[in-house]
Design a protein that fits this description.
four-stranded parallel β-sheet, Rossmann fold, 11 helices, binds D-glutamic acid, alpha/beta, 2 domains
């Protein structure tokens, strides 16, 4: 991954500085969960851009502009690394961000490579947003890593909205999910890649629609390991959990955040500071 050899953000380059995490809404909590579990000593500041959600229906230049604005806020708070916990934002902006800011960025990458390796049928399905699937970076990934396996991509409008509403089960969720998953299973897919960070919250519904012969994989844990690797590389790992803070901010209504947090967050919800990001 690219990174300038001599970062000129000395204030951000301290091991006790927080890690910044961005997503279009609550989806990135699936990645936050993995980072918090793997790196409990790190302070984390999460921005969920619910006011602009869904990113997946927006053109790439609009997503990129917005992600730069939010990254500026995080960098203003002295973060030492930014995680784009959003496939759509990664595809639209990560290369431009790396070329602009002298801190490391960890982005999402749909797990096409492990999926191709795990498939016995030779058919892999990728569920993602329209914005992700429109990105050239995504097609490069498939071209480079699909390894002779047939990859069927499916844009899934509506799934992000279900998660943002906290609708993770029930007939309506099952109906929408089934509309996307059934054609993939019919086409012979035996591995499904969750190419959007919102989708792990629908994993049970997706697995039920796909049936027991299909493996469902996502990238959250791999991104957490990548974050640890980048921090180790730069000697920026925090140690001593006493000061570790978890701040979760939204650009949307704070009430919605307060309702969803205890429902979607798998770990102890008590120690998080929840709030609204004033713009
Ligand atoms: N969670 C995001 C992703 O991984 C964005 C979903 C959206 O806002 O459309 O792509």
């Amino acid at each position: 991954m690219d990174k300038p050899a001599a970062p000129d953000y000395p204030c951000a380059m301290a091991s006790h500085a927080p890690i910044g995490i961005l997503d279009s809404g609550v989806g990135g909590w699936s990645v936050l969960d993995e980072i918090r579990a793997l790196l409990p000593d790190e302070s984390l500041i999460y921005i969920g851009d619910s006011a602009w959600c869904p990113y997946g229906a927006r053109p790439a230049d609009q997503i990129q502009q917005r992600v730069f604005q939010l990254t500026d806020r995080l960098i203003g708070w002295g973060v030492k690394l930014v995680v784009l916990a959003c496939n759509s934002a990664t595809i639209a902006a990560v290369e431009a961000l790396r070329a602009t800011y002298p801190i490391p960025f960890a982005g999402m990458e749909p797990a096409v490579k492990p999926a191709a390796a795990a498939s016995r049928s030779g058919v892999v399905g990728v569920l993602a947003t329209e914005a992700s699937l429109a990105g050239e970076k995504f097609h490069r990934l498939i071209h480079d890593h699909a390894g002779g396996v047939r990859v069927i991509t499916v844009p899934c409008p509506g799934l992000v909205e279900l998660v943002e509403r906290g609708e993770l089960s029930g007939d309506r969720a099952a109906g929408v999910v089934n509309g996307y998953v059934a054609p993939l299973v019919d086409a012979g897919a035996d591995v499904l890649v969750l190419g959007c960070t919102h989708y792990p919250f629908l994993r049970k519904v997706i697995e039920a629609a796909a049936g027991p012969a299909v493996t469902v994989i996502d990238t959250g844990a791999a991104v957490a390991r990548r974050v640890r690797q980048l921090l180790e590389r730069d000697d920026l790992l925090a140690s001593g959990s006493d000061d570790a803070r978890l701040r979760v901010l939204t650009t949307g209504p704070e009430e919605q955040l307060r309702q969803l947090w205890p429902r979607l967050w798998a770990q102890s919800a008590d120690d998080a500071e929840l709030g609204r990001l004033e713009e």
